[in-house]
Structure formats: structure tokens, C-alpha cells
Hints:
By secondary structure, the chain is mainly alpha-helical. 71% of the residues lie in helices and 0% in strands.
Amino acid sequence: MPGQMMHLYVGNCLWQEQGLRGNRSQFLLGCIAPDGVNAKGFAPKKVRWRAHLRARDLGVWKENALRFYQGQQGVIPWEYLLGYLVHVYTDILWDELFNPQLERSIRALTQDEDKRDFLRWSELFLFDRLACFQDWWKHGARREFARARALDINGISSTMIELLQKDTLFWYANTIEEQYGTAPPCFVTQIQAENLASAVIEQVNICE
């Protein structure tokens, strides 16, 4: 699944493309909120799936996301809720459009499952590390993101989301560098990120 910075990149693209007016800070934090369950380490599958409204069938997963979004309108601030929806759609469309090719590329490199798992995560995290130093983040979105106030959503506590927010702001890039190095990713590219953002924007437009 995409990491925090991919989610924030997609969200930032949507906000600008749609010309939205509102609390951009809360929207951006909503874009990582589902991953709050992992703020203290990888959560159990059941917890992760609930936080992401997940289903094995991608069509059902999309329906779950839309149902939650529609059901929480007027209950959760719209910017935060929209960010949450964008996160879930980003995961769905990544699985649908881009992950199959990434899996084929990795499987062609090695038969060792542990090495495949490392390569899988390194691709996603190394993209995120690069994004931490890009202008859209350093000179705009990061400042807005830092101002956001975490809120409880879908059973995920504001405390966990705030922990993930702080990690993204202060430690994330260094942690990636320590674990995966500084080389650019081989398969997860800026063009893929742009295409993913376009697909998410199209999906959100269908919902509204």
C-alpha cells in the first residue's frame, strides 16, 4: 500500500485540481488518518482492514468507502472526511491499477519471498522519502499539514493519528533512509504518482 507521502501527494493534487476552499490542513491530515492504526507499529490485519473499510473485492471496497463518506457527512468536518475518502480510494486504485505491475516486476527479480517483501516496501518508502524533499511538500503542504488537529474517525483515536502526523513531519524521511537507503525507487515513479492522483480525482468526482 502507498505510504504517507503518496497519500499526501494525491490529496494535494486533488485539492489544487478541484480548487477547493476550506480547511486544507484538516483535509491533508485526513489523507493519512486511516494509517493512524499503524502509528505504534503494524496493526493486526483486522484492525487495518476496518480502518480502511477494506473488502477483498475492489468493487465492494469502493462501495464501503462511499457509504462511509455519505453516512458521516455533517458528523465529521467535510475536509477531514474527504481526506479520509481520498486515502481509501488511493489504496483501492493503487491495488487496481499499479500494484499488479509492481508485483510482476519484483517477482521477476527474485524467488525469495523475504527479498520480495523487502523490495515491495522499499519501492513505496523510497518514493515517500523523495517526496519529503519536493517543493510541493517543503514549501506549502507541510506547513498546512503541521497546523492540523487530529480528530477521532472510524474508531481510530486522535492520539494515534497525531502520532503519525508527528512522525511524518519530523522522523519519517530519516527512518526510511536508515532502513532502505537513499537510492531512488526503480518502479514507483513520479509519473505513476501523477496517474494515480488523476484516477483518484476522477473517482471522487463520480461520488459527488
